[in-house]
Fold each of these.
Amino acid sequence: MNLFFPDAVLFDLDGTLVDSAPDLTTAVNRCLADLGRPAIDEDRVRNWIGNGARWLVARALAGRRGIAAEPPQTEAALARFFVHYRDCLHERSVLYAGVADGLARLAVLDLPLAVVTNKPGAFTQPLLEALGIAGRFATLVSGDTLGVKKPDPAPLVHAAEALRVDIQRCLYVGDSAADRDAAHAAGALLVRVPYGYPGDDAVFAEHPADLTLTVPALADRLAALSQSNRMAP
Ligand SMILES: O=C(O)COP(=O)(O)O
Ligand SMILES: [Mg+2]
C-alpha cells in the first residue's frame, strides 16, 4: 500500500505509544485480590488489552480473551479496577522506543496529531502528561468520549472533525484489529506498529495491515515524502 503525505496523524495509545501493560496488570491484580481471586501473569494480561477497561476486567474475571457474555461480577470489579489503576497509572508504564523522537519529528512537519484510544478519559491525559507527550496532541478522544468506541469508526471521525481535516486524508497508527477495523470503516489508512499487544497477532497474520512501521520510521517516511513534494514541479 502506498503511503501518502496526510493532513493529520492519529494514534492509538496502549500498545502503540505506551507500554502500559505493567501498570494495567497491577491494577487488574489488585482488583482480583479485592474479590479474593488469584493474580494473573502480565503476559496473559497483554493479550487482553485494546478493547477498553470493561473488556479487560471481564476477560480477567473469565481468565481468557474470548468471552460470549460478561461475567456477573464485571460491574463491581470495574469500579475496583478504576480505583487501583488511578493509583498506579504511571508507575511502570513507558513510551515505546523512539516514540518521543518520532512525535517531535512529525511536529516539525507541521502535521496535526491526535490520540484516539479505548482507554477511559480519566486516565488518558494524566498518563500522556506523566510521560511528557501530552503537548504533542491537538485532540484526545478516549473510550468514553462518545457513546461508542473502536472498532466503531466514530471516534476517528470525531478526532478528524476536531482537527478540521478529512478522515480519509488521515493515517491511524495502531496495534489491534479494533484499530484496523475502525480505520478502514472511517476511510483512513492503518499503519500498524511492529510491536504492541499480541491479542490480534493471528488476525493480522491472516489479513496483514496496510503498512507496518514504528513511529520514528513513519516520521522518516513522511519527512522524505514532504521533501519530494516540495521538490515536485
Ligand atoms: O483497552 C484499552 O483500554 C486500551 O486501548 P487502546 O489500545 O485503544 O489505547
Ligand atoms: Mg492499542
Amino acid sequence: MTGSSNSTRLDNATLALFQDDNTSVAISVIYMVILAVNLGGNGLSMWLLLFRTTPKSTSIIFMINLTFTDLALGTALPFQIAYQLRGYHWHLGPRMCSFLTLVFYTNMYCSILTMMAISIDRYLGIVRPMLFRRNRESKSIALISCFLMWGVVLIVLHPLMTTDLTFDIPELGITTCFDVLKKDMLPTTVVVLSTPSWRLAKQNQANVEQTTRVSRSSLTDTMVLNPVISKLAGKLVVLASASPRRLEILRNAGLRFEVVPSWFKETIDKGLFRAPHEYAVETAKQKALEVARRMPVKHLKTPDIVIGADTIVAVDGMILEKPVDKCDAYRMLSSLSGKEHSVFTGVAIVLCHEKENEEVDYQLIDFYEETKVKFADLSEDMLWEYINSGEPMDKAGGYGIQALGGMLVEYVHGDFLNVVGFPLNHFCKQLDLIYNHWTSPSEQENVSLHLSHNGSHCPSDVTQPSPILSTQCNQSPSSSAKSNSSLSPRVSSPSASQKHNSQDGPASSPVHKGKRKDTESELGESSWTLVNSLSTHPKDGPESTTVQQMPSRGHVSVTEHEDSQPITEDLQRIVEVMDGFKASKALFTASDLGVFDLLQSRPGSDASQVAQEIKASVRGTECLLEACVSLGLLKSKERTCQRPVYENSDLAARFLRSSAPLSLHGYIQHCNKTVWPLFSHLESAVREGTHQHEKAFGKKSKDVFQDAYCNSQEVKLRFMRAMHSVAEVTGAAVAEAFDLSGYKTACDLGGCTGAMAYKFTKAHPGLSVTVFDLPAILEMSEHFQPLHTDNRVSFVAGDFFKDELPKADLYILARILHDWSDEKVHFLLRKIADACTPGCGLLLSEIFLDEDRRGPSRGLLQALSMSEGKQRSATEYGLLLKNYGFITTHVTTTKESFCGCAVLIAETVLDTQRPYSALQSLNMLAQTEGMERTEGQYADILSKHGFGNINVVRTMNFLDAFMAVKM
Ligand SMILES: C[S@@+](CC[C@H](N)C(=O)[O-])C[C@H]1O[C@@H](n2cnc3c(N)ncnc32)[C@H](O)[C@@H]1O
C-alpha cells in the first residue's frame, strides 16, 4: 500500500460505492470517449491557432491558453481511467497522486478563468469598443492575464502537492487517490470524501453529514454494520415500508434491499397500550409480519429478513401519527409548540427460515428508539405558513425535521435519524447482535426449547441469525438501549395480543426472566415463553397461518385465520377491560396510602421499608408495589441477592404525588371515595336509571352538591380538591383557547376553588373574574388560594338557580351543565341569557361526546354515574345554546390534554333572528331525548331550525367547550 496509515475506517455506504464495479467501468468508458474527443479536437485547434492564425490578437491568445488547459486536462485522464478500472486503486504513489490531482484541478480552474477572460474581452469589444481598441494593441495584457491566472491557481492549489492524498482502505485492499480525504485535512469532520468521481458527489454529501452526526456520539458505533453487511450479501432483505425517508437512510447505509410496502392497516387501538412506544413497536411488527407472510405466497419467494418500522410522535400522553388534513396538522403542531416531545420509532426485524417441507419459520426481533425534540414557540402565522407548505401531510406529528420542519425545532436529544424515520444506529447494533454475537443453542434454554418445538435447530453456520438470549444482556452496547429486551433483541410472538410488559431495562424486561406473566384473570394464570415461531404453509394459501405458542408449562397451539382477528387479541381486550377496575383500585390505594409521596422523598426504598412507613403488611405492600410497576406508575431496580427497590416513574412524579403542581391526587381521592362506591352499585343504577347515592352513602340526596357533598366537611373538601386538581391540569388550556381581549369581566358560574378563574386572569391580563359558587363551597375556598393571589379574581357566594347572577361580559360554565336535568339546564341558560347584554359571551367547557356517541369512553363512563344530567355531543350543546339565541361560529380544540383527551371549544354568537322561548326549547328537547342520532341526522335537525354548519373537530375529549357571544 502506498497510502499512509489511516486511523479512521469508512462507513459501509462509502465502501459500497467503491465496490460498485459497474459504475466505475461505465465512468471509465465515458472518460475514454472524452479523452479521444479532447486530444483530437484540442490538438487540431492548437495547430490552427498556433500556425494558421494571424495576427495573434488577445482573443487568440486566450483561445490558445484555453486549448492548452484542456489538453493538459486530457493528459491527466488516462491515469484517472486506469485508477478507476483498477477498482479505485492507486498504484503510482502519493507524489504522482498529488501531481495529477494538481494538474487536474489547475487546468480545470484555469480553463474556467480563461473562459471568463474571453467573455470579458468580448464584452469590452462590444460595449466599450474605444477602451478595447486602446488595449488590444497591447497583447501583453492578455499574456499577463494568462500568466497571472496560472500563477494564482498554482499558488492556491499548491498545498495539494505537499499533502498525501492517498488513503488505504484495508477492508477492500485498495488505496484511493483523492477520493477520501483524511481527517487532518479538514477541521471539523472525521472523514470527508472528495469528488473526483462525480457520481460520488451527492452520496458524499449525505455521508459527510451522517458521519459528522454519528461521530458526535461514538465513532465506533458507526462501524457495527460493517461486519454485518457482508453477512447480508446474497440474502433477500425486504423493507416493509414505502417511506422515502426510511429508504434513503437504509440506502445511504449501503444496505441492499427490496421494497415491499406493507398492506397492514394501521388501525390498532392505541388505548390498548400502556406506553406510546409499545404502539409503534406493535405496528412495526404487524407491518413486517404481513410482508413476511405475504411474500412466499404472492411473490413466490421467501425473504431472509423483513424490516418493518413505524414512527410516532408522543406528547402529553397523546400519540400523533400523520395528520389527515390541515386542521389535524394544526392541532398536532400547536400541541407541540413550545414543548418537548418524544419521537418513537418501533422497528421489527423478521428473520425467515425456509424449511425443507416448504414451511417458513419466522422469528421476530423488535426494539424502539426514543428521541426528544423541543419545538420553539410557534406563532399562528408560522404554523399556517408551514401547514400551507404541504410538508406536514405525510409526516408523523405533522413535521419533517429534515426539511422545512427543521426550522421549528429548538433542540434534538438523541438519534436525529430516528426523527427522520429510522434509528439506523440502533438497527445496526441489533443486526450486529443477531449476526455477530450468536450464542450456541445449548446455552439458550428458552430458545432451544422453542426451536426444538418447531423442529428447527440452531444453525451451525454462524452467519445464520439466531435469537439472542438473556445471557447476553450484559453485553449491551449501550446501557440506554431501548430494545424491548434491553440489550438483547426481543424475540417474540407475532401477535398484537402478546404485548410484552415492556418496561425499559433488563430489570423489568420479561425476556430477562425468560417468560412473561400474563394478566391474572378468571381465565387462569398463563405464563408463556416469549419466543414463538410461526409456520406458514404456502400451499394453504394466504389465509391460513398457524401460530405455535410455547407455554412454559405445556404446549398450546392456536390456529388463527387472517380474515378474522386473532382470538388472543380479542381476549386481551376483554381481559384489559375486565381488569381495569383492579388497576384503578391499585392506583387509588397506592395514592391513598401515600406511596407516591413516600417514594418521592425516599426513592430507593424496598417493600419492607415502604410497608413500615405506610403501616401496611410487607406482603401486601410488595404486591401493591409490583402491580404499580407493571402499570408504569413506579420503577423497580433489582439488587443482587436483595429485595428490589422502588422509585416513582416520571408519570407518578408529575401527576401522582400530592404536592406536584399538576397533581391529580385530589381527583384520585374523589374517584376512590365517591365515584367508586357509586359504581359498585352500577347494576342498580342501570336497572333504576337513577344515581345510587343513597345505597352508596346511606343518605338521600336531591341536589348532589348541597345534600351529598356540602353536608360533611371531609366530603366537601375532597370534592373541592378533586375539582381543583383537574382545573389545575386542564384549566390553562381552556382559558387560553380563545382571544378574550374583548371582555373585561367574566363570571365563572360554579367556579369552586377559583383555580379556573386564576387561569383565565393569567391568560388574559385585561380580564377580571368573579367566582360564583355555593356559600358552603366558598367558605372553604381560601384553602386553595395560590401563593400570589390576584385582585382581579373575586368570590361571590350564591345559588345560580335562586340568586341573581353577577353582571359580567362573559359567563363561564366549566363542567356544570352535564350534572343537571334538562329542566335545570334550561332554567340556568335562560337566566344567563337574561343577564347577558348585547356583546356578552358564554364559554362552555365540557366533555363532548362523539357525534356517533361511540366515544370518548371517559364521557360515556361518566354518564353511568346516573346523575340527573347527561353528556352531550358538540352538536347537542350547540343546539341547546341555540335555543337561547346563541349560534356556534366555530369549534376548536385546545392543545392541552388530560389523560390523552383534548379539549374541544366552540365559539357561538347570538342569533337574534330566532329567539326560542324556554318552553319551545324544552318541547324540542323532550322530543329528541333518548334518541341516538348520526352526525347527518343532527345536521338535518339543525338545518330545519335554520342553523348553518357547525365545524366540529373530533378528539378523544376530556373537556369540550363552546364559546358564545350575545350580539
Ligand atoms: C363539577 S363542579 C365544577 C367546578 C369548576 N367549574 C371546574 O370546572 O373546575 C360544579 C361546581 O358547581 C357548584 N354548584 C353546584 N350547584 C350550584 C348552585 N346551585 N349554585 C352555584 N354553584 C353551584 C359546585 O359547588 C361546584 O363547585
Amino acid sequence: MLDKVKNVIVVLSGKGGVGKSTVSTQLALALRETGYKVGLLDIDLCGPSVPYLLGLEGSDIYQCDEGWVPIYTDETKTLAVMSIGFLLKSRDDPVIWRGPKKTVMIKQFLTDVKWEELDYLIIDTPPGTSDEHITVMECMREVPCTGAVLVTTPQGVALDDVRKEITFCKKTGIKLLGIVENMSGFVCPHCTTCTNIFSSNGGVELANFAQVPHLGTLPIDPRMGVLVGSTSSVLSHLPDSSTAQVMRHIVQQLAAATAQPQEITA
Ligand SMILES: Nc1ncnc2c1ncn2[C@@H]1O[C@H](COP(=O)(O)OP(=O)(O)OP(=O)(O)O)[C@@H](O)[C@H]1O
C-alpha cells in the first residue's frame, strides 16, 4: 500500500557493484536523520544487500491483516525497511526464479507492505533494466514514481550502461532526478591527495550530455565499510568528511527537487 507515501525514488544502475545499495541505504539514512519519515524497499531479488548493510540480517517479518509489516530500525519508527532478504533463510540461499514469479513477488512487495505515512520510499533495484524495473513502473498507480537516481562509477564501461538507463527512464516516463558518480577517486587518509584510480568526471559529463542534474561525486572512502551493519549515516558518523559533505548536498538537492526542502543539520 503506497497511498500514504508522498515520494517514491527509484535507485538505478547500469552495472552491478557500482554502489547502488550503498547509495540507496545512505540516502535513506540521511533523509531520516534530516527529519523525514523514510521507507527503504530492496527489490534486488537475486542479491538483496540492504539487510546486511543495515545489520538487520535474520530479522523476522510477519503479515498482519493489511499486509507485510516492514522492519523498523528503532522505536521512533522513522525508517521502515523491507527486503526479499528477510524471507530467505540464509544469505547463501539463491533466488532462482523466472520472470513471472519475480514479477508477482515485486508486485506483492509494492502493494502488500503496510507502509505507514512516509515522506520518501527509496527503492533499491537490481542492476540493469529488467522485469523488476518494468514491474515497479507498472505498479506506480496509487503514487506515481517521483523520479530516479542513477548511480555510476566513472569508468567508460559503466557510463555506457547508464546511457541505457537514461533511455529506459525516458521511455517509461520516469523523471530523472540526477546522477551520482560513486567510487570516484581515492582520497589518501594520510596526505589527503586524491588519486583518480579510474577516470574522473564521467558522471558530470554524462549529466551534462543528458541534461539531468549531477547530484554529486562520492569518493572511494574505506571508512564506508565501518558503516556496514549500522543504522547511522555517513552524515552523523563522519560529519566532516568529504563523503558526508557530498551526501548532504545530494539530500538537499533531492529534497528541493521533490518539493520537501528542510534545513539539513545532521
Ligand atoms: N564510496 C564508496 N567507498 C568505499 N566503498 C564503497 C563505496 N560505495 C560502495 N562501496 C563498497 O562497494 C561494494 C559494492 O557496493 P554495493 O553493494 O552498494 O553495490 P551495488 O551496486 O548495489 O551492487 P549489486 O550489483 O550487487 O547490487 C560494497 O562492499 C560497498 O561497501
